[in-house]
Write a structure and sequence with these properties.
Blueprint: H1 2-25, H2 31-54, H3 59-87, H4 94-113, H5 115-118, E1 122-128, E2 134-139, H6 143-162, H7 171-199, H8 209-226, H9 229-235, H10 240-243, E3 247-252, E4 257-260, H11 262-267, E5 298-304, E6 308-319, E7 325-334, H12 336-350, H13 360-376, E8 381-388, H14 391-398, H15 400-417, E9 423-428, E10 431-437, H16 441-457, E11 460-462, E12 465-467, E13 471-477, H17 484-500, E14 506-508
Helix pairs in contact: 1-2, 1-8, 2-3, 2-8, 3-4, 3-6, 6-7, 7-8, 14-15, 15-16
Length: 512
């Protein structure tokens, strides 16, 4: 009767383990789920082997069950360790760490299956039939060493989680404690088993290790399932973090940090110091623009360190099938080149490419706004036209490149003489136009004379050639019924008078 109950309990536990494996199988794809499936498969194999052992009719059948049981047990320890390492974001080298672990388990299994030829694991074995049926044996030289290996792996698996407790905060720390409890179950049951072995040497001891492994896997599954670990990791880090160049940050529904990639850390170096479960928005450099983002919204912002870089950020929600939010993904894409290009295009639209001052169209737009402002404040307004004297001779003598150098120099001389809020533009060819306000006539005249004098003394150096040139200036005061267009025409007439009077002069409209 006792043996029947034992067989039935193993069958029930085996069925439950298969059910858990099927549930995990239908979870979204991720490395963590893969390791759990391998772990669960080995637990099922252990239980199946144990079932074969306790339902056997002779020693050979029981030995076959023991071989299957041990195969599952050794690899259960390996995949439990790999699962906890991956869950804790501990990177294990696939060749130098993962492969040797699997290889050692494979060697032990091989020695176990061939022990009748060398006696390293079992020297001999025989079948015990009584209240409980099981395989009894005489341990070989490597028996205890082979059984120590999975114990060490299980301890390391437990330490993988324990070491994360100080790093993770909030409910994520509670999650770690639940995993610690799960991983402690086999140690608890193994302790009970060996206490019975040493305190009751001649008694038939109920072997509970396969049950403890099944309970551990069941506990692990529902522990991680409760926190939606399979869903979050599979929808984000398992794919995005390995394949995107953009900065990637994963947070939970309450904006607590979960994970990020190296690109995100290069954008926000403080990311390297934040622990899982800490509020992401507590970072000093976390942009204010991102704290109130909506799903699928695009936000652009600058980060200034040694230089200014620009980023475009999108935020997407990670949801379950019932549409409940379990996480958020922030994607950072650098757009510095795009921003600089747009600025260059904007600049080209209103700046003269040669001299770097306003072009004619933009000067007119700004001048009209300045006139309206000055009229509202009852300020005086003056327009002026400046033309280089005999500029054609420069082009004919030294070439057009030399003429361009003279035009650049002229813009620099004028710009240095006027106030920061006075308007200066290139009107066309060698003509420059100015608009300035809030000056008396004699002050405006002095300003124009200073520009003329500075131009007379300026030297343009082109290919070791020193070029000097003068300018003529016409100035007009803006009258009550004037427009910008006729005010510039008046200044142009005064410029014409300056040219006719001998050049290198300043003339005011309405005077001889």
């Amino acid at each position: 009767m006792e043996n029947f109950i034992q067989v039935l309990s193993v069958i029930i536990t085996l069925a439950l383990s298969i059910f858990v494996g099927i549930l995990a199988l239908f979870k979204n794809q991720s490395n963590k789920r893969n390791y759990f499936l391998l772990l669960q498969s080995m637990v099922i194999l252990s239980l199946l082997g144990y079932l074969l052992e306790i339902s056997a009719g002779n020693a050979e059948e029981a030995f076959t069950g023991a071989k299957v049981l041990n195969f599952g047990a050794y690899f259960t320890a390996v995949f439990t360790f790999l699962f906890t390492a991956d869950y804790s974001n501990i990177k294990l080298h696939p060749i130098y760490i993962k492969t040797p672990l699997i290889l050692i388990s494979s060697i032990i299994v091989f020695l176990m299956w061939t022990t009748k030829y060398h006696g390293l694991i079992y020297i001999d074995y025989f079948f015990i039939s009584g209240s409980y049926q099981y395989l009894s044996f005489t341990p070989g030289d490597l028996y205890f060493a082979s059984h120590l290996y999975p114990v060490i792996l299980m301890i390391l698996a437990l330490l993988n989680i324990v070491f994360q407790v100080k790093k993770w905060t909030g409910r994520y720390r509670k999650k770690l404690f639940s995993l610690i409890i799960c991983l402690s179950i086999p140690f608890f049951f193994e302790g009970i088993y060996y206490i019975n072995v040493f305190t009751r040497p001649n008694a038939q001891i109920f072997y509970i290790t396969p049950y403890s492994m099944a309970i551990m896997s069941l506990c692990l599954f529902f522990s991680v399932l409760r926190f939606n670990i399979f869903e979050i990791i599979s929808n984000s880090t398992a794919t995005a973090m390995d394949h995107i160049r953009e900065g990637f940050i994963l947070v939970d529904e309450d904006n607590n940090y979960l994970s990020s990639n190296s690109a995100a850390i290069s954008i926000l170096p403080e990311m390297a110091k934040i622990n899982r479960g800490e509020p992401l928005f507590s970072l000093p450099l976390w942009p204010e623009e991102l704290k109130k983002m909506d799903d699928s919204e695009l936000v652009e912002f600058p980060i200034t360190d040694k230089d200014t870089r620009y980023y475009r950020v999108s935020m997407s929600l990670v949801t379950l099938k019932n549409r409940s939010v379990i996480a958020k993904i922030f994607l950072f894409r650098e757009i510095t080149d795009n921003v600089n290009l747009m600025r260059e295009l904007e600049k080209a639209a209103y700046m003269d490419s040669l001299t770097g001052i306003f072009n004619r169209r933009h000067f007119i737009e700004l001048a009209n706004m300045e006139i309206n402002r000055a009229l509202r404040q009852n300020q005086s307004i003056y327009s002026a036209m400046l033309d280089l004297d005999l500029f054609k001779n420069v082009n004919d003598t030294y070439g057009h490149a030399a003429g361009d150098a003279v035009l650049k120099k002229t813009a620099e001389v004028i710009h240095a003489a006027i106030r920061s809020y006075d308007l200066l533009g290139r009107y066309g060819g060698e003509e420059f136009v100015l608009l300035f306000s809030n000056l008396e006539t004699d002050e405006a005249l002095k300003l124009m004379e200073r520009i003329r004098e500075n131009m007379e003394n300026a030297i343009t150096v082109y290919e070791d050639i020193k070029i000097k040139i003068t300018c003529s200036i016409g100035m007009a005061r803006f009258e009550e019924n004037d427009t910008l267009e006729n005010s510039i025409k008046k200044a142009d007439e005064a410029l014409y008078n300056a040219k006719n009077a001998g050049r290198n002069l300043v003339k005011i409209y309405g005077t001889k």
